Amino acid sequence: MLQITDLQASIDGKPILKGISLTVNAGEVHAVMGPNGSGKSTLAQVLAGHPAYEITGGEVLYNGENLLEMDAEVRAQNGVFLAFQYPVEIPGVTNAYFLRAAYNEIRKAKGLEEVDPMEFLDLVEEKLKLVDMDPAMLSRSVNAGFSGGEKKRNEILQMAVLQPMLAILDETDSGLDIDALRIVAEGVNALKRPDNAAIVVTHYQRLLNYIVPDFVHVLAGGRIIKSGDKSLALELEARGYDWILETVA
Ligand code: ADP
Ligand code: MG
Ligand code: MG
């Protein structure tokens, strides 16, 4: 589904990603871990098509097509979804409106007509239960005045409604209490199908108690310095990152 080869990217002329290679197949969950400032969010943003980043080398194929040539909008229409580390507030646009507009964009790209509003409401209500969110949140502006945990749940609600093919979650676990963490993880697990995939960026191991990854990658200094299975995450939890950094040095 996703084949990243030697990806290099800069922001404001500063190289951040220094040659990332990563293959994600349908049905897989990949965890990306690593110290602060290692480039995890940059990788997520580059994959989602954030225009501030300059691609300076490498290639990314998404279902065999050049992802880097697609606008962020086209990527989203084609099933790429990014849950932000810092979800944006959109004052004046209700959650319900935003969700339906995004959902219809994806339908339009598939040549389908707009969803029936009542049918859509049923769908959203079912997904609200998944993230244990109050239906009243639908009539509030997107993320405006939401608590940190509510914003993260709202990202998962968006994901559950849009049903992406490739979901990228950037530290959706940070700032969550243990109940919210479990809800977020259940939301992600409920989405898992043989034909979609997820890249879960996390700073801590604890999310991976609930979302069991097929692969774990350690990103440091803009490179993947180690990959393994879920036991690598446990090892990181126990030993920190320094031992890997030393091994690589
Ligand atoms: P992580 O998500 O792993 O904590 P980031 O991808 O957010 O790391 O950041 C990687 C590096 O890129 C950091 O050193 C950060 O300071 C730098 N960086 C991010 N955004 C900018 C920017 N707009 N200008 C300059 N440097 C940036
Ligand atoms: Mg960080
Ligand atoms: Mg980050």
Automatic annotation (TrEMBL):
InterPro entries: AAA+_ATPase, ABC_transporter-like_ATP-bd, ABC_transporter-like_CS, FeS-cluster_ATPase_SufC, P-loop_NTPase. Transmembrane segments: none annotated. GO terms for molecular function: ATP binding; ATP hydrolysis activity. It comes from the Bacteria. Keywords: ATP-binding, Nucleotide-binding. Pfam families: ABC_tran. Residues 2-246 form the ABC transporter domain. PANTHER family: ABC TRANSPORTER I FAMILY MEMBER 6, CHLOROPLASTIC. Belongs to the ABC transporter superfamily. Ycf16 family. This is Cysteine desulfurase. It comes from Gemmatimonas phototrophica.
